[in-house]
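step: validate -> pass
step: tokenize input -> pass
step: predict -> running
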Amino acid sequence: MGLHNDAGICKIYCNRQHKCLWYTFDGEVHAVTAKALTGYLRELKFEKCDRRGKEVYKLLATLEADRLYVLESGHDTHFAKGLMSAVASLTPQQLQQPITIQPQPGTDDKVLFCRVFVGAELVMAHYDERTDFRAVAKRVIALVKGHDW
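step: predict -> pass
step: emit ->
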């Protein structure tokens, strides 16, 4: 509401490809300097797209804050797995509150993790190579869609 410089949806790419944790792209890369994003989780979905001549799947998480933000991550990255695992552990009541998503660098300069908070509480959600992420993804998508916003 009111006057501002930003309009429309802001897409944020969550990977360390450009020597930052997350960034926007409008023909050139702009590092996002904010350490976290807080908003209402409105949608989680997977999208097939073409990147560098290859067909890939991306996880898209839409958060409503001062505007809509779409976080994009590879579907099988630690960022995506951490986000899905954390959201899968939340109750519908918790998802009615704003959540905070924070990228967390790994020790390898290519790894990016995702930390999720509800209020000031870090959501602890563990996963490993045996985790069935298809089942987790279905649960998360249904959980987020199940809300009557």
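step: describe -> The chain has a mean pLDDT of 91.
step: cleanup -> pass
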